[in-house]
Amino acid sequence: MTQKGKIFVVGFGPGDFKHITTRAVEALQQSDMIIGYKTYVELIQDLVNAKSIVSTGMTEEVSRAQEAVRQAEAGSIVSVISSGDAGVYGMAGLVYEVLIEQGWTEATGVAVEVVPGISAINSCASLLGAPIMHDACTISLSDHLTPWNLIAKRVEAAAMADFVIALYNPKSGRRTRQIVEAQRILLEYRSPDTPVGLVKSAYRERQEITMTTLAEMLEHDIGMLTTVVIGNSSTFFYDNKMITPRGYQRKYTLGEEKQPLRPHQRLREENEPWALNQQTGQARDDFATDPNANRIQSTVAIKPKPKKTALEMATAALTMIKGATTEVKVTPKLVQQKIESIFELAVSPGVANKFFTPQQMMTLAEVVGEAGTMEYTPEHQIHLKIPTTEPEVITEKLRAVGFLLAPIGDVLNLKACDFCYGEKADSIPYAEEIQAKLGGLALPKTLNIGFNGCGMACYRAVFDDIGIVYRKQKFDVFIGAKPVGRTAHAGQPVVEGLEPEQLISFITNIVEEYKANAHPNERLFKYFKRVKKILHFTYQDMSSKIEIEPAPCGD
Ligand code: SAH
To answer: Which stretches make up the Tetrapyrrole methylase domain (predicted)?
Structure first.
């Protein structure tokens, strides 16, 4: 019996020598023969000493694999090469299939070693930033060996399940429709703004990187050497990088060195409410969409375009058969899943009203449902988080029972006292007007306006970013309180006895100046301390005590 040879199936990575593994180079250098597609053999020929190189055309994979087996059986060491990883749409499977056809087993046949390489999904991802990071899949759009209907089904399933998708073989000279069809399917489940990265010839001479969106990707050059990376519903662009967050921000504060959860607390059940419960085998449905839904304070849910499902078509057909008058109802076993977002908002019964009606409480319970949460906040609001595809339906129901709605985040909030009696109520319309004009305004940082109906200021307006106190039919205004921390202090009294008709424009001017000039995340007191002037008022250090006119309640 002749000496048995060996087959290396070598993935040489994206194409440059720096990204080929040491084992791959060893394999190529030990080989008597290198077999591969012409362009690839040329890419690596400076690395090899082989006496014979068999380079064949693109479509002759089967003959390449057969030749490799023949040569190895005749005693040669042969490397069959693939770009990227030989096990990803490469030669590894085919070599095994040809061997199996001949009754090969590891014990009796030639030695086979598959040498792994960096596949296009990884090399292209590295050039785009970090788009893979979470559950991802590869789909080849080549239908030369795979029925198109199966490919389309996989694209749809991956789109529906919110996978990051790397499309291999997206387009060639003759196959141009596949990528158009794939885009159409993806748009049924993903937002047109979904980030998409196109990488052509990664780590090769003519490398090109393009950042685009699902809606616009076809306006760019896509070819045989392009990998198309489609983001999931939480992928974003930042500084020309495509990033898919992993979910760390759920447990970690990424801008702080000190973490709110200590290491031993991180795996506790209550800190992972989205995890599979080990006792019940159930997981909460409100986290079922994307890993970062809670992070994104989305007011817009991604709604798939309406599509006739097989169920709807079957229902329509049954209705036709039974006669147009009797509508047939079929209970779906498997309902097509829509992608939900967590809709967050704050509600309160009104600016000056602290009473909830039973009807309001019932509506809250109804819209929040089993899957949502309600949390009472120090701002006298109830913060709602509701998984939904239709936020408008929720806001409509809440408004219909008289709730005041406010967005969450860095916005202007107005918190008023309940104007306990009598003349204090005269100031309510001013509070309502400020709310109507400025409530919910997006700002560099949260800004709370405290509005109190008498000099007692028992709702602690002077400790809000802007404090407004109604006293003797006029207003006192305080700005720049430091509401939190050990060095918390009251605001600086900037105006006493402001005429009511001047109040709204006065407050508006302060807010506008802050909005236009403050740094992102700079709270009003920090801004005042930094610039030393708001309108024509000069900053005073309020850590020292400041005497103001005593003002008994009701005075
Ligand atoms: N075995 C290879 C894939 C071969 S299929 C691997 O693991 O990467 C061929 C497809 O791979 C191409 O159509 C393209 O989509 C992708 N591809 C391979 N090399 C690439 C590169 N250098 N840059 C971008 N895409 C590449």
So the answer is: 6-217
Alpha carbon separation from 469 to 184, 412, 421, 485, 508 (Å, rounded): 58, 18, 15, 23, 16
The whole-model pTM stands at 0.55
Average pLDDT over residues 73-96: 95
Is 483 in contact with 456 (CB distance < 8 Å)?
A: no
**Which residues does 216 contact at the CB level (< 8 Å), separation at least 6?**
none
Provide residues with CB under 6 Å of ligand 1.
Answer: 14-15, 82-85, 88-90, 119-120, 124, 168-169, 199-202, 204, 224-227
Ligand 1 pocket mutation pick from 165, 200, 226, 229 by most atoms within 8 angstroms of CB:
226
CB of 69 closer than 8 Å to CB of 7: yes
Q: Which atom of ligand 1 approaches the CA of 15 most closely?
A: 22
Question: How far apart are the C-alpha atoms of 457 and 377, rounded to whole Å?
Answer: 20
Range with the poorest average pLDDT among 94-108, 304-318, 414-428 = 304-318
Distance from the alpha carbon of residue 7 to the mean position of ligand 1, in angstroms:
22
Reference 490, options 442, 553, 543, 538; nearest CA is 543
| Sheet with 404-406, edge to edge strand ranges | 373-376, 382-388, 341-348, 404-406
Do strands 412-416 and 447-452 pair parallel, antiparallel, or not at all (unpaired)? parallel
User: At 318, is the pLDDT very low, low, confident or very high (cuts 50, 70, 90)?
Assistant: low
* Cα→Cα distances 20→47, 82, 168, Å: 11, 12, 20
CA–centroid distance, residue 84 to ligand 1 (Å): 6
Element spanning 68, H or E: helix 61-73
Distance CA 236, CA 243 (A): 5
What gap in Å lies between CA 494 and CA 524, rounded to an integer? 14
Test site for ligand 1: of 137, 168, 175, most ligand atoms within 8 A of the Cβ: 168
Strand boundaries in 38-93, DSSP class E: 52-56, 77-82
